[in-house]
Specification:
Elements (H helix, E strand, L loop, with lengths): L4 E4 L4 E5 L15 H5 L5 E5 L2 E13 L1 E4 L4 E8 L4 E3 L2 H19 L17 E2 L2 E5 L2 E3 L3 E5 L8 E5 L3 E3 L4 E5 L7 E5 L3 E3 L4 E8 L3 E3 L4 E8 L3 E4 L2 E3 L2
Keywords: Signal
Family: Belongs to the ice-binding protein family.
InterPro entries: Ice-bd_prot (IPR021884)
């Protein structure tokens, strides 16, 4: 990776910085994304009850939109590479597999040293590993994820309750960190604030709400509703 590469979908960007200077020996991973997501692997968005695209157009740059056992996908959206599945066999398969994925991610052991003393992650730099807290917030500034030169480095964030981000917050991916290796297991709901940039694959036990002007490089899966308002999302 070179300096100054951007994920460009709107004015707000996710910065990817820090070239890997030499090859590193791969370490065994906690998560194999292909296996963890199973039959959800092709979905950028999947809700259990409804998926709503409020306001003007939301763009799904790649990946499909699904809902099951609910049947409602409403509003203005454009799927550039993928489709929409309304409680068909594919959507029902994902509904089953996302519960398995949640149980696996939330069940990974969080070392005592990685129990976050504060729910606030804004302004911090975190190394790979399983990180946990009762709730997590990124209310200001940037969360930096440093892969220490390993392109397979993984971050698994576990929260018993909520994930809440603030307006215009962003992520900085350094030294080999990749969005596809960032996972969020949310015990209740995730709320992504307006005009922010978010990285990672979220699975929420309840719901996910995305405020206007937000870009997501990842996937958003919830057991209840997923709601967008004029945003963009792209599978990593």
């Amino acid at each position: 990776l070179t300096y100054g590469h951007f994920f460009l979908t709107k004015t707000f960007v996710i910065l990817i910085a820090g070239a890997v200077s030499q090859a590193q020996t791969n370490t065994s991973s906690l998560v194999n994304g292909t296996l963890v997501w199973g039959r959800c692997s092709g979905y950028a968005v999947h809700g259990g009850t409804t998926v709503s695209f409020d306001g003007a157009l939301t763009i799904v740059l790649n990946g499909s939109v699904g809902v099951s056992p609910g049947t409602s996908v409403t509003g203005s959206y454009s799927v550039r590479s993928g489709g929409t599945d309304l409680n068909n066999a594919a959507a029902a398969d994902c509904a089953s597999d996302k519960d398995t994925a949640y149980q696996y991610l939330y069940g990974l052991i969080c070392p005592a040293s990685n129990v976050l003393p504060s729910p606030e992650l804004g302004g911090q730099t975190l190394l790979p590993g399983v990180w946990c807290a009762n709730s997590i917030s990124i209310s200001a500034a940037t969360l930096t994820l440093n892969g220490t030169g390993n392109p397979n480095a993984e971050w698994i964030f576990q929260t018993a309750t909520t994930l809440i981000t603030g307006t215009a917050t962003a992520f900085l991916l350094q030294q080999g960190a990749q969005a596809k290796n960032v996972y969020w297991a949310i015990g209740s709901s995730a709320t992504l604030a307006d005009h922010s940039s978010f990285v990672g694959q979220v699975i929420a036990h309840v719901s996910i709400s995305v405020a206007p002007g937000t870009t997501v490089l990842g996937r958003l899966l919830a057991n209840a509703a997923v709601t967008f308002v004029e945003d963009s999302i792209e599978l990593p």
